[in-house]
Amino acid sequence: MIARRHQVALALTAVLAAAAACQAHDHAASGEPGRPAPSGAGRGFTLVASGDVLPHTSIIERARFDAGGTGYDFRPMLAGIEPVVSHADLALCHMETVYGANGDYTGYPVFKSPPEIAAGLAATGYDGCSTASNHTLDDGADGIRRTLDALDGAGVRHAGSARTQAEGDSVTIMRAGPAVVAHLAYTYGTNGYPLPPGQPWAVNLIDEGRIVADARAARRAGADVVVVSVHWGTEWQDAPDQQQLDLARRLTASRTGDRPDIDLILGTHAHVPQAYEKVNGTWVVYGMGDQIAGAMFNHQGAQDPRGNQSTVARFTFAPPRRPGGRWEVAKAEFVPQLFDIDAGRVMNLNRALARGAEVRGVRDRIRDVVLSRGAAKDGLVMGK
């Protein structure tokens, strides 16, 4: 671990220097529409994050239909959540699957998605995605390479898988208004697929010691905020399982001096929305659910509408009150979502309600699950 920590620190130093010199992918500093430029050192920033993008065969077919039968267009699918995503200073997704090529695209159980989805994510306003999941090795090293190449081509950053050892030893650094944010990502496993020969760095596996070491290296190299994405938990279980609870408690308890090593934990994998909770003073989203997925069938073989429900997490960070202090979450929100499998569209449920759609029961169920561990008392509210 000592050698790897040194490698990470060196890689981070170089990445941070590049980030300071070039803001090509920094929407918040670019003055793009909907993304105001930083107004000064006292300004905070808003981060949004969403759940699993899981293109089943029906999703691939919908994207082809939306492209008029030529190519694949995922932008209409995501248009309903674009206002929420594009107005954040930093927006993160979870790209659960890897990409195929030349029309060789498959859904469950071994996924190879059209690479055009990267352009759809970029057009929606996503700045980066976690790419560590149980499907990261569905097409071996080639699948990882195609996926990261496509995300790079679309200007979407990524964390959790790698094409080279140097990439695996680095940490993804992004700007969010005036802040430097490190994004780390890990998965519980890869569905039994072994790591490619000679490539132990191809996908990050959950290891508490490594996560803490990476977070500390990111902080030492200048990251103001450290965000950790974890692909974990028990599928189809509304409540976080014991592994989630234990790991969240240990990770949020890790500190260097009087400052936590990790500022935010974002969970994926369970297919259903799970609770938000403040643990040791740090927000944990146990599971955001599936943002995009086809009809989902649970372990009993029944179609389960929860598999198309999710949340967008939105956290507004305020700058430290003193030099070297922590960036604190000043406002914590969740936005309830539904993927309408008939229309092939992501719906912001609060906006859909305002238009008269009959989705109140779904919205309220998501709200009850999200607040089930007492997050309301720590200030979590439902956003629009």
TrEMBL record:
Boundaries of every Capsule synthesis protein CapA domain copy: 46-295
Protein name: CapA family protein
SMART domains given in the database record: PGA_cap
The keyword Signal appears for this protein: yes
Keyword S-adenosyl-L-methionine attributed: no
Annotated signal peptide: 1-24
PROSITE patterns per the UniProt record, alphabetical: PROKAR_LIPOPROTEIN
